[in-house]
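Progress against Task 2.4 (sequence-to-structure conversion) is shown through the following example record, which the project officer requested during the mid-term review.
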Amino acid sequence: MSEHILRSFDEDLGHLTAEVARMGGLAEAQIADALDCVLRRDVRLAEKVKAGDRTLDELDADIERKAIRVIALRQPMADDLRHAVAAMKISSNLERIGDLAKNIAKRSLVLAGSEAATPLSRSIDRLGRLVAARLKEVLDAYTASDVDRAVAVWTRDEEIDSHYDSLFRELLTYMMGDPKMITPGAHLLFIAKNLERIGDHATNIAEIIHYEMTGEPLGADRPKVDSVTP
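Structure tokens generated for the chain above:
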């Protein structure tokens, strides 16, 4: 980022980065807690995740207001303008990640009385940990202004897709083999899809970071596995 005559301008931009990083940390915590809800059938924790989504909504709105104020008052150009816009776009992705974590927590409440789903919850946990790791990596790339680390997350998106496809087939196999698994299996399918979508948001953030830092979009198509799942 270029140096500015007005120190307050640098402070405004730095504050935006800090607020997005704070929001990212809360989104990471929401994912971790949502996964614990599925594994431990923790009803109280699920309610905490649902309540925590409101905080992410408020932070997203606050970051948007502050970014618009910076743009309106400072009239930034080039990399500074991209910085302000990137903060808004990343916070929007984080807000959506919070929505998906809340949905996972809500579905865990339905699974709370189903012992049949317990073995499959471990497969969900493996996918969730992979997704959480990707989100952490891309948020670290953002705070460090490290475009190479962001691109590394983008290029590994297919790993999440592969895990999701494998879990999708595993869940279908259980559901076809045991009618008692149909209802909990359906909820686990939605949970798996939510995790896969969180991975997509992490990849979106990587693309935003690349554009913020370089002024150029990632030229290649996003790496994807040929999938038969919805």
